[in-house]
Design brief:
The chain is 41% helix and 11% strand. The chain is an alpha/beta fold. The strands form three sheets. Strands 2-1-5-6-10-9 form a six-stranded mixed sheet. A two-stranded antiparallel ribbon has the order 3-4. It has a two-stranded parallel sheet with strand order 7-8. The C terminus is likely disordered.
Length: 326
């Protein structure tokens, strides 16, 4: 069954961000080329909406659409003075939010997290938004645990994302969650974007571009990706880059936005996920091939980062099942 998505466009919506959901989800197809999602844009009262860029868009649906879909995406809406001052939603927006089905997923792009917080949807949850406004967000909504250092946060039913391209990342994340890495990767290729950036990756706040490509860590990252099965250490990475551990760690964080070992762990997790989705290798062999050493370590990391066992992950993504315990 095709998954129905509604994108809510409010007055002042950022035009580029408004098109993200449709562009990414429309690129997701089953093996026969049939679409897996349908995306429809709506507005309050079905009225034309003036974008942040100064032109109007016309939509075919009003907010009643929110009652009939499986996922609602709130396109980027910069918080107005009233919302920043009071933390309250305009009555018409609150009425639209009240029409969202109790089981529908809700996704905010960028600063639309302010709207979800004002609606009480983020109380007690971890969330993110554009790093520039994270401090203001935390002051206005103290019941929300604000994380300024990530691309998106997945709380299950409620997801929030950071600025700009992070909207693409959260959409690809949902495709991966729904249909696995192969479908998400194919959608990313159709959109000509990076296939996977982990939600915990930093927002790249004013990270400088390396002045000298020869002093970049990019060659070492590629070297490590080709050796994920090996027991690589921080010293191994620094040695390959011909740098001290301290210098390598500093430059790596500046370029990638996270530490070398955190990046390496995420690469290994991603590789293990791909193997579980696309092969019939046992959990033990997946653990060895992805550099975790044994099945116990792999299960521990899957439980910590994904909340389920390797075989539960495999079953959820329709890969060949095994009789071995997970």
């Amino acid at each position: 069954m095709v998954h129905r998505i509604a994108v809510l466009a409010l007055e002042g919506v950022l035009a580029m961000d408004l098109g993200i959901a449709a562009r990414v989800f429309d690129a997701a197809c089953d093996p026969f080329g049939a679409p897996l999602y349908s995306v429809t844009t709506c507005s309050l009262g079905g009225r034309p909406v003036r974008t942040h860029e100064g032109f109007r868009i016309v939509v075919d649906d009003d907010e009643s659409l929110l009652e009939r879909v499986d996922t609602v995406v709130i396109a980027t809406q910069e918080p107005g003075r009233h919302l920043l001052a009071t933390g309250e939603l305009p009555a018409e927006v609150a009425g639209a939010f009240a029409r969202i089905g109790p089981h529908a997923r809700v996704v905010s792009l960028c600063t639309s997290a302010f709207l979800l917080a004002a609606a009480g949807l983020l109380d007690g949850l971890r969330a993110t938004t554009h790093w520039v406004l994270c401090d203001a967000f935390a002051r206005r909504f103290p019941r929300v645990e604000v994380d300024p250092d990530v691309l998106f946060v997945d709380n299950g039913r409620i997801l929030t994302s950071a600025g700009g391209a992070a909207g693409i990342d959260v959409c690809l994340h949902l495709i991966r969650r729904d249909h696995g890495a192969a479908v998400a990767g194919a959608a990313a290729r159709r959109c000509v974007v990076a296939p996977w950036r982990e939600g915990g990756q930093a927002q790249f706040i004013e990270h400088p571009v390396p002045e000298d490509a020869d002093r970049s860590t990019s060659a070492t990252r590629q070297w490590a990706l080709n050796r994920l099965a090996e027991p690589l250490t921080l010293e191994d990475l620094a040695r390959h880059a011909h740098m001290s551990v301290r210098t390598f760690t500093r430059r790596f964080r500046n370029e990638v936005g996270t530490s070398p070992l955190q990046w390496l762990l995420q690469c290994r997790l991603n590789h293990a996920r791909r193997l579980l989705e696309s092969t019939d290798l046992t959990v033990a062999r997946v653990a060895t091939a992805s550099g975790f050493g044994d099945a116990v370590a792999l299960r521990k990391h899957f439980s910590t980062h994904l909340g389920l066992s390797p075989l539960a992950y495999r079953r959820a993504h329709n890969a060949p099942d095994l009789t071995a315990t997970g």
